[in-house]
Write a structure and sequence with these properties.
mainly alpha; Cytochrome Bc1 Complex, Chain D, domain 2; two-stranded antiparallel ribbon; 4 strands; 50% helix; binds heme C
């Protein structure tokens, strides 16, 4: 790395992606892993895995809205993921900042950091999603889930 980016504001900007990833990993392990499992593999029939579908949802505006609203309102309604049905309730995850919500969703969309080229969510995406969806209930959020094969 050139010396000019080792210090000063440009250097700081270069460290942002890694830092956001760390935040996402930390939020995941402290807030989500208790249900979704340490590797986001879930427990079939009880807690869904958060694997390929999250990266797919992150690619579209509707999908990003859905993801942001799941964390904001929680989720309730029938889901089918990988051929397994879920009729559970995810509680709203309060106490997270917009940046933390964006970071944990980016972490999941990237396959827990394994695919850094995956689309990232920003705090602005989370704020905009909330502004677009005033009907904030776990059931209303279920209705936002984009079509996904096998679901
Ligand atoms: C108390 C348990 C619990 C916690 C904690 C929890 N979830 Fe969930 N989550 C669930 C359940 C249960 C579902 C499925 C709800 C249903 O069947 O409608 C779900 C569904 C989801 C979905 C929808 C997946 C899909 O394919 O549509 C996403 C995304 C998600 N959770 C992300 C998170 C994130 C991110 C966190 C941490 C910030 C988190 N969850 C914390 C229980 C939990």
């Amino acid at each position: 790395m050139a010396a000019w980016c080792a210090s000063g504001s440009l250097g700081a900007a270069w460290t942002v992606p890694a830092a956001a990833d760390d935040v996402g990993a930390t939020v995941f392990s402290t807030r989500c892993a208790v249900c979704h499992g340490p590797e986001a593999a879930g427990i079939p029939g009880a807690f869904p895995s958060l694997h390929d579908q999250i990266g797919e949802f992150a690619k579209t505006a509707d999908g990003r809205d859905y993801l942001a609203m799941v964390v904001t309102t929680g989720l309730m309604g029938n889901l089918k993921i990988g051929g397994v049905s879920y009729l559970g309730v995810m509680p709203a995850q309060s106490g997270l900042s917009d940046a933390e919500i964006a970071a944990v969703l980016t972490y999941l969309a990237s396959g827990r950091g394994k695919n850094p080229a995956a689309p990232a969510l920003t705090a602005e995406d989370v704020i905009a999603a909330r502004a677009r969806h005033s009907d904030r209930s776990p059931q209303a959020t279920r209705a936002l889930r984009p079509p996904y094969p096998d679901s």
